[in-house]
Amino acid sequence: xxxxxxxxxxxxxxxxxxxxxxxxxxxxxxxxxxxxxxxxxxxxxxxxxxxxxxxxxxxxxxxxxxxxxxxxxxxxxxxxxxxxxxxxxxxxxxxxxxxxxxxxxxxxxxxxxxxxxxxxxxxxxxxxxxxxxxxxxxxxxxxxxxxxxxxxxxxxxxxxxxxxxxxxxxxxxxxxxxxxxxxxxxxxxxxxxxxxxxxxxxxxxxxxxxxxxxxxxxxxxxxxxxxxxxxxxxxxxxxxxxxxxxxxxxxxxxxxxxxxxxxxxxxxxxxxxxxxxxxxxxxxxxxxxxxxxxxxxxxxxxxxxxxxxxxxxxxxxxxxxxxxxxxxxxxxxxxxxxxxxxxxxxxxxxxxxxxxxxxxxxxxxxxxxxxxxxxxxxxxxxxxxxxxxxxxxxxxxxxxxxxxxxxxxxxxxxxxx
Length: 417
Prior knowledge:
Blueprint: H1 12-23, E1 32-34, H2 43-51, H3 67-74, H4 79-86, H5 90-99, E2 104-111, E3 116-120, E4 123-126, E5 130-136, E6 146-156, E7 171-180, E8 189-192, E9 196-201, E10 205-210, E11 216-224, H6 228-233, E12 258-269, E13 272-284, E14 289-290, E15 293-299, E16 308-309, E17 315-319, E18 324-328, E19 330-338, E20 344-356, E21 370-376, E22 380-389, E23 394-405, H7 406-413
Antiparallel strand pairs: 1-13, 2-3, 2-6, 4-5, 5-11, 6-7, 8-9, 9-10, 10-11, 12-13, 12-19, 14-15, 15-23, 16-23, 17-18, 19-20, 20-21, 21-22, 22-23
């Protein structure tokens, strides 16, 4: 299931962003709520169920327990359960890591000759609904010799609950995704600055190349929490974990289309969030099916009360041993769409880029330059349009729409749209 940290789990940058947005008064609109330093999607309710309430009516927070007690509780968990606990929030991640050092993710660079280079992640950050792992160093193999990159979760083979595992001991590799490095072409390039160019390889991988030498500078993997535990532990070194077959949820009212959907979307980089929004009670009808997609409108051109600002500057931060920088107009987008029964219907974490647009396609004329953000995978598409307001120095989202693949809807609900 998708996992989100409890209120207050995020850093101060999120709190300031939410406060600024709230102070501007952008709260009205169809089911829109800006989240200030907290996760969404009814995590509070799940936390209450987990922790319970005292007889005096006060909520007992598991996260409020002293670290010594939490470490004692975590000592009874196995590797899979500890990884699951580490996805709750930053504090749980660090406490779980105290019990399992070496648990995380690696990339395996494979040369054309068959030689392999296994690299441990150098940096790791926990976001509201995703993990970002980064690799960089001085001794990368030459790009021209490389063929593929494997992203794997790693867990200790031998797990003693009373002792910290040996760091260099045997570990189990679970393949998450395999990437072809020959796809680092102009069509996959997201942006650049004076030092590097960055490329996007689906799912969720950012590859940075030095502009002068055309060699690897860094690799960044963005992993959504949905099924992350299973994908990181239950696959093999050669075969990814496969989800169990889905049993269709029989739709008793197929004629009404989709209703009561809930969306949570973040845009962030380097722990700084420029957007964190929750949208409830989303719906659409069969009349919005076109070219094998069903459109789910989230923010409309015509309703200005739904328009939202991005907080702060938009850019994808990067760093290596020697340099750091920021790619303007790029960021990481985390999207979680829950269907009417509260189950994750579509989830991803991926780099996206804001590009100039000739103007909103069917909306009013805005006073400012217009931009668009597009994302697509096998399950759907995201189309987001923004306007730059020179007077206030900020971007406003004036349109946000999801296009869900009809084949996925039919498979999920057993319908025949």
